[in-house]
Design brief:
about 525 residues, alpha+beta, Beta-Lactamase, 4 domains, 11 helices, 20 strands, about 40% helix, about 25% strand
């Protein structure tokens, strides 16, 4: 026969307490002992009535075993919801006990009278059972006392038993609450540990629990080592208001620093207030922000440099152009009044101004190509001494006019991995500057050396008056002009050294001033190994 809807609800209520088949518990045993003392019976027990069995939670004076539901008087307490008192189970006319132990209520005979009882004398002669009710009113089981001889029970004892039954119900409610709390705790623990973000549970700034993700960031991953430590030891700042994101730094025990966002909320766990903090690594975002700031700064600097540079270039180009225009105008209007010597001098001046302007334009183009990436250094192995010799040959007139000596202290076998055309231009600028700033009769020395790391240096050393100290910080900048006339009044574009810097940067190398002063200046081209 199927269960009724009422019985289905009762069984569901019973199982919601998760009490069936649990180990013995002192609280329930104490109630049973107290019931035995109050009723002055040899047996007492707490039972829960399942679908087909009677299960003992606590028992004294009887065997501790399951009994089929239909063989118990407790089934009738569940059915009626009221206490059941049987002073003598052998003679009570309300029940029949079959030979197999099944207990049934007796039916009325003809005329409404009860048939004679058919009791199969069992061991229990006296029975009192009171219902155990859940919060929905369902009867979950019974609190019972029993004796092996017939006896009477006063209403006072019955009332005391009902009070004890209420205590059992309170224990059940407490148990269900604790079971729910334990389930919540296990859920919290699981979520806490498997969370992919660092989590910390703190009480008044003291770490009470941390998950493995947090422990891996600040220690060797052992969460137990963090319990009891101050949170401020790891977090530079702590949030004060729930729901507000705080950007701060997380410090580990070996000095590492990680930028993080911190979120937190308040939790009340068994009357204690805790802060639950979740941390998010923002190092990628901070790095992107840093790169963007640098790019913005570079763009802003480039714009300022471009404006300054264009202003300088327009001024520098204007001078030779003005000179050319004035000379051409003079030639056009002078007619035959110019002597042959004057005309030759004018042509020389025109050529000089034009050459200076062409050199400036070429250097501007090369700087632009290098900085925009249009011109790249294609490095191959090249012997440096022949390059220096060709440069000196092109400058032989200037060297001769100043009676300079050139000591090329570069071994024939000395070679570097360079873009030969670009490196030639860089070395040309340094040698031509050495010629330009050398007094009459002095010596220029060109040296080459292989470095221990496989790279190399080429040094150009003059005996001029040195670079003014105030010019040194800006010597290789194109936006600040540091060009000065040479010892014989030679002019310059002011773009040579910035071009050298860009050429060396394209090689992954550098140009520097090793020393300068009254004894002369040493410029160094440094080329890294391939």
């Amino acid at each position: 026969m199927g269960q009724t809807t009422h019985e289905q609800r009762r069984i569901a209520d019973l199982r919601s307490f998760q009490i069936l088949d649990t180990p013995a518990e002192d609280n329930y045993d104490h109630v049973v002992e107290l019931a035995k003392l109050i009723a002055e019976t040899p047996a007492a027990y707490i039972t829960f009535v399942d679908t087909a069995r009677l299960w003992f939670k606590s028992v004294v004076g009887l065997p501790d075993r399951d009994i089929p539901r239909e063989r118990t008087f407790c089934q009738f307490v569940v059915e009626t919801g009221a206490h059941l008192l049987i002073e003598d189970t052998w003679t009570d006319p309300r029940f029949d006990v079959a030979p197999d132990g099944t207990i049934q209520r007796r039916d009325c005979g003809p005329g409404g009278t009860l048939d004679p009882p058919r009791n199969n004398a069992g061991s229990i002669r006296f029975y009192l059972g009171v219902p155990l009710r859940g919060d929905t009113g369902s009867v979950l089981g019974t609190l019972c006392v029993a004796d092996f001889v017939p006896r009477r029970m006063s209403p006072t004892v019955i009332s005391a038993m009902e009070k004890l039954a209420e205590q059992v119900t309170a224990l059940l409610e407490l148990r269900r609450t604790n079971v729910a709390l334990e389930a919540e705790r296990e859920t919290f623990t699981t979520l806490f540990e498997v969370a992919p973000v660092p989590l910390v549970l703190s009480e008044e700034g003291i770490i009470r629990r941390a998950n493995h993700v947090f422990a891996a960031l600040v220690t060797d991953g052992d969460t137990a080592l963090l319990n009891g430590k101050m949170l401020a030891r790891f977090l530079k700042e702590q949030p004060e208001n729930p729901g507000v994101v705080l950007e701060t730094e997380l410090h580990n025990e070996v000095g590492g620093v990680l930028p993080v966002n911190v979120y937190f909320t308040n939790l009340n766990i068994q009357g204690t207030s805790y802060d639950l903090l979740a941390l998010y690594d923002i190092s990628d975002r901070k790095e992107k922000e840093r790169v963007l700031r640098e790019q913005r700064t570079q763009a802003e600097n480039a714009a300022r440099i471009k404006d300054t540079f264009l202003s300088l270039v327009s001024h520098d180009l204007k001078s030779p152009l003005s000179g050319i225009y004035a000379m051409l105008d003079l030639l056009a209007t002078a007619g035959n009044t110019f002597s042959e010597e004057d005309r030759d001098e004018a042509i020389r001046d025109l050529r000089s101004s034009t050459a200076l302007m062409m050199e400036m334009i070429q250097q501007l183009l090369n700087i632009h190509r290098l900085e925009s990436g249009q011109l790249r250094a294609e490095r191959t192995r090249a012997e440096i001494r022949p390059i220096a010799r060709d440069i000196l040959l092109s400058l032989s007139r200037q060297v001769s006019e100043k009676s300079l000596s050139v000591d090329t202290a570069i071994p024939e076998s000395f070679s570097l991995c360079v873009d030969e055309a670009l490196f030639r231009e860089a070395l040309f600028n340094l040698i031509s500057n050495a010629v330009k700033f050398s007094p009459l009769g002095r010596t220029i020395r060109i040296e080459g050396e292989v470095l221990p790391d496989g790279g190399g240096e080429v040094r150009v050393i003059d005996q001029g008056g040195g670079v003014p100290e105030e010019d040194l910080p800006n010597l290789f900048r194109q936006d600040i002009k540091t060009s000065r006339p040479g010892t014989a009044g030679e002019g310059g574009t002011g773009l040579g050294l910035p071009l050298v810097r860009d050429i060396m940067a394209a090689h992954g190398g550098d140009v520097s001033v090793r020393y300068t002063g009254l004894q002369g200046t040493c410029f160094v081209l440094s080329i890294p190994p391939v």
